[in-house]
Amino acid sequence: MSKKLDYQDLLLTDFFKFFNCKEIASKEEDSRIIKQVKTGGYQEYIDIEFHLNEAGELIEATLLLDRSWVGDHENLNPFAKDIAKSFVEVVAPVENKKDVQELVYRIFHQQGSKDRVITIRTPRDEYGVPPLEIKKILEVFKNQHPKMYYMLFTSMYTFENVEFDGKQFLSIVWKSL
Q: In the Cβ-directed half-sphere of 147, how many Cα atoms lie within 13 Å?
């Protein structure tokens, strides 16, 4: 059985510090505690929710990014890539941190076809050809595929392009199984 991440420990992570996250609302629903969180910057484009059990342990987490802010297969917003990879990494159970390393790397280093990145040196790809599962997730990120799952032993991620009230979003959901 995996040890669940405690919400109080989550508040102390680099994710919360770097993105200057603040809890804006808390409610109880169906024996869950739901914490709504906003980042310090780009608040109009980013929504974060953490679902906790009665003991305050993380059982589900959602990152919702405005699709127009994320970009597409031609241009990807580097800030969107940064928060997405950081979210995927921070909510991964301790025993699965290594299992998400390539996914985190690929999310952060992907580029749109028209993106131009100037670097002092080309980053070394430590992973080679990405597995089909990760390729499909990157296609979801670029709005070229509707939905993809990433399964871990005790949890899973769902990457999905969704629509609410006529507006498009990239949804990344992590759930404990």
A: 4
